[in-house]
Amino acid sequence: MKTLWTYSHAAPVHGLRVGPDGGIVLLDAPGGHVLLGPDGTPVDGSRRARVADLARSATRRGPYDIVTDDDRLTLLLDGTELEGIELDGTVTAVAAARDGAMVLAGTEEGTVYGLRLPLTEAGAMTLLDKEQDLLRHPDATTARRAAHLYLDTGSPCFAVRRVRRLGQRGALPPGSVEPVIAGIALQHRRVLRRDPGAAFEAGVALSATGEDQAALGLLQRAAADPRFRSRALYTAGECFRRLGAESAAAIAHEQAAASGPGEDEKRVLYDLARALQEQDRHTEAVDRFESLLAWDATYEDAWQRYDHSRNRARSAGPAVGRRSPVGSAAGLVRDLEARGLLGRTDSRIESYDATFYVQFDHTGVHDSVKKRLEMVQLLTAVEDPGAVAASLDVGSGTLRYPQVLDRFGVRSYGIDLSDAGIHACVDARWARRFAVADGTAMPFRDGSFDLVTCMMGTVNHLSAAQRERFLAESFRTLRPGGRLVVSAWDPACRFQTFLSFYSPAEMAQLRRRLTEPRVLREECAAAGFSGVRTTPFCTFPDWLATGADASGTSGADRLAWLADLDRDRVAGDPATVGQMFLLSARR
């Protein structure tokens, strides 16, 4: 949008109206209304003008939507941003001239802007009509022809956004969107760099079409905007990895995980907090609102809602918010706490783990949370650990899960390719429950176990052929009706960080072996298992896990609401992706 003229007023602009002759009235001005002419110059106040009321913060004019966000005014064409402009202060009033060629905006600073639209109302309608003609009979060339239409009448930034939006609507043939956006990006990179949103979409398309070097500049430009930072950095890390720059990839992925929430994550926190508030679970609502406010203290009406829930929680006493919904993880977490499974009680395991963390100056805080959430997912999948007579953990390391299941009365065993963790971390009696063995050739009789587990991404270290043998061995050693539970890292997660004691080389190797949930489900079914299902967890970046590794009630509370956050996100959107997923199947 081009600024045609500005008018400075002595006070904030509280309203604008436009008369049929183009005259503009400033409402609520001290000393009465001020009347401007179409060119922004004051005119005789006695001149009469018929005025039309328009919306204060958003208005519709023909095919356009005009919306405001603080000091930014954005022009949308059929829901796609055409252009935006930043003004000198918070936008307090918006109006559109009747000829559809100009938008008026007033700010808290007292400035009135006359802005020319990039397309007249008639031009915008013509563009949409031509677009509809193209989309009536889509073929392999439709996306390319639509892009040329937008470039001729709009801008490269609009062309990128519009092609992406039509692709999301399913209006363009599958597979045609990324190459077309990448083509626009290669020709107009300098223009796209000025717009973080368009730069992000263009960078993603370049990455998807193998243009990794070209993608990096656009993705790093997009990462300067908080709205795209996490996703842009993660995609940039994938570009670096494919280019062989492993250290740069590791840094980008670490920055992505530590960059805080994007708009999607903030919306989830806000919606969960509101839902809890409406259920009178105010203590839990306070906790979620505090997590949101820590990252965005201006998010919608979060402060007001937080104050309301905090006051209600105080007045109702400590019992408010403690009841859990059906299916809540809180009861299971309390059971784990009562059995001593959430505390840091084994100094040998802590010391053993510390030898890995010290290599990279990490504390393992987030690793601890991932392990605890995995434990919650495992016991949820098992349903009744007390009904399990015997279990086997493959890739058992320090025999963590055999010791956990032992607390539930399970006769539990473990195997691993190395016994280093066993010698360092467990009592002699556990040595009789452990064997140095390969999960692809287990030294046990058929039908030996009720439960076989393979946890914390161990399966991601296996090749496809090794996974086939592991699944066959699991099927053989399980009793009829027995259960297989596997946890794995999800390659689709954009805030993936794995375990922090992995070196950059180990992470790079692991990424090459990651298996999509769909693929693992298909392999499991092919091995003869039934009831195969996968459930994502750790559906949030690491920053949100702070505090859930602590011992005692505070850590258990935090862990319970993280587990409930996972559950609520998956229930609300089955396509949700987490850092990990749990596979469960029956023999």
Automatic annotation (TrEMBL):
Annotated transmembrane regions: none
InterPro entries in the record: Methyltransf_11 (IPR013216), Quinoprotein_ADH-like_sf (IPR011047), SAM-dependent_MTases_sf (IPR029063), TPR-like_helical_dom_sf (IPR011990)
The entry's keywords: Methyltransferase, Transferase
Superkingdom assignment: Bacteria
One BP term from GO: methylation
Molecular function per GO: S-adenosylmethionine-dependent methyltransferase activity
Keyword Glycoprotein: no
Protein name: Methyltransferase
Short name of one Pfam family: Methyltransf_11
Domain Methyltransferase type, residue spans: 392-486
Hydrolase in keyword set: no
